[in-house]
Known about the structure:
The protein is 77% helix and 0% strand. The chain is built from 11 helices and no strands.
Amino acid sequence: xxxxxNETFKRLDPVEEKLKLLADYDVNISExxxxxxxxxxPEFENFKLMLxxxxxKIEKHKxxxxxxxxxxxxxxxxxxxxxxxxxxxxxxxxxxxVDNNRAKNVIGDYQAACEGLRDIxxxxxxxxNLFNIDPPLYKELIDVEKELESLEQIWxxxxxxxxxxxxxxxxxxxxxxxxxxEKRAIVFQKTIHRMSQNQTIRQxxxxxFMRNNLDQFKATMPxxxxxxxxxxxxxxxxxxxxxxxTFDPYADTFTLDEVFALGLHNHSDIVAQ
Length: 273
């Protein structure tokens, strides 16, 4: 309306001209119309004053709104920083005292927290766009989201490996498929190796635990293969029994779990003989 004030004022001229023409022709103009004509210019001046007052109020509200948006952004930055600080302190970077379910629950909680922060960011976006504010990148939030993705991957891998190990360790030792076991272990090792390309992940105790676990398992496979050999005879088992105690290698209860519980994997020199 302010931009069109001059054009609006020009629209009064035809009214004046028509009323003047009527007066020239002695046309009787009512007192009401005459009063309206007289008040046109003063009322228009009042209208301009009102526009200026409104413009000032609008500008003041815009400043207040921009300040509120900027304050919201600063408060959001604090929330993002607090979230990362909490994540660093509590996320399951280690398996010490943490089982698979607990780790997955903690990861899920932080994923939900990050989603909530992203919702707040979207709510702030209207004000950011309205006032042409450069949108912050929130690197701390991005970092947490990336690390959560990696943590979820490595804990899923651990759970999968635990399930695989549990299925093997209760199997009768003589029924173990050593070739399949080696192939599966290699797949797990490759996954862990790919994850090691991320320097941050390599610093996590849970990654070191998985790497060491898989390396140790892979290292024992030649021994397990030797113990599974059909060439093993009672005379081969006797020296082992002398070292670790009596056991029946032909019993249904003789499982991979018992092999490790007896510590047979620590006597590879005897098995090799």
